[in-house]
Amino acid sequence: MRLTILNNSFVRLLKSKTYIFISVALILVTVAATGFVVNMKIPKAEIGVTQSAASLLHTNLVNNKELHLTEIKKNNDYYQNLILGKFDAYISKEKGKYEIVTVRNASLGEKLNQYLNNGKVAGENKKRDKNDFKVILTVLTMSLMILSLILYKFYFDDREGIDKRIYLSGITNLSYVIQYFVFNFLILGGVVILGAIIILPIFDISLSWNLVVFLLLIAGFSASFGMMLSTITRKNQGALLIGTMLTVLTMLLSGALFDTGNDSQYLLPQHYISNIGKFLDGNSATVTRDTLAVVTYTVLFIIVSLSMQNNRREQA
Asked: Distances in Å between the alpha carbon of 279 and those of 10, 32, 129, 167?
């Protein structure tokens, strides 16, 4: 296989310093931002305790890692502080029963009520699922999909007439599509792994060979997505606009960050990528089905790209 397209793409990339900067900066910023977010400590809920319930200040509730108790008095700012968010809840005691007043956080009020009046600890002893890699992979996928569309600029440059001369040299449609896919895959994979190695340890997020493999898998998926959309659209700007909209919309509908409760989320690749993140977080025992799903989408996108490129060549 003649690697004319692959070689020329790397030569043009090295001459276009802007695209090198965009590629590196976008991924580094994305990794740093997600690393910072997943390591943010959840602030304690501010709980105001009236004098009638002041005995709570001498119980184990004071040592709760999620609550900060402060004794308060009813004055002119009593309700204002609750409305403005200075306090998340007030606890008072009337006729032997605790009363909880909240404005913004009804779930917190319910948990406090269950604990103080019924002795039930809602989720207190339940271990919280760790979602670090789920968030990181989901957000990185979105950035890689958009970056892939940016890097296919060289493909659109060739469509201005250079590709006709490329075909005259004997390169097949399969070779044409695959070489552009490989070029994008190498750039995306290299940049995202470099970003992970440099940034994640700063936030005490451990690296592993599984993470490297799955980052390469996502890079391949993103490269195929960009290739497919580029062969469908006429201009690079159109691919960027449509691709960005699709990337954000499908990410939201896939249940990658929050469960939508809709069966349509199982049709979107980001859903399975987030499941791979769950596996890396230790919240899933197997990842075979999800890996096969992402590989299937990658192959499907390449097939669509090849079909569209064949049609475009026949119409030229």
From this structure: 35, 21, 11, 44
Note the pLDDT of residue 129. 58
What CATH number does residue 108 fall under?
3.40.120
- In DSSP terms, 69 is beta-bridged to 47
**Residue bearing tokens 């690749």:** 269
Residue range(s) defining the domain that contains residue 189: 4-39+129-315
- Dist. CA 42–CA 136, nearest whole Å: 18
First to last CA, the chain: 24
* Per-residue b or e along 231-242, where b marks 16 or more CB atoms closer than 10 Å to that residue's CB: bebeebeebbee
Nearest Cα to Cα of residue 177 among 299, 34, 58, 20:
299
Task: Kindly state whether residues 31 and 50 are assigned to the same domain.
Answer: no
Task: Kindly provide the b/e burial profile for residues 74-112, where b requires at least 16 CB atoms within 10 angstroms of the residue's own CB.
Answer: eeeeeeeebeeeebbbbbbbeeeebbbebeeeeebbebb
Q: Is residue 42 helix, strand or coil?
A: coil
What type of residue is 128? R
| Model confidence band, residue 146 (pLDDT cutoffs 50, 70, 90) | very high
130: DSSP letter: P
pLDDT value, residue 13: 85
The sign one gets for the Cα dihedral 248, 299, 200, 146 is negative
pLDDT of residue 154 exceeding 70? yes
Q: Which helix (H) or strand (E) holds 91?
A: strand 89-94
Residue from 253, 291, 260, 252 nearest 275 by CA: 291
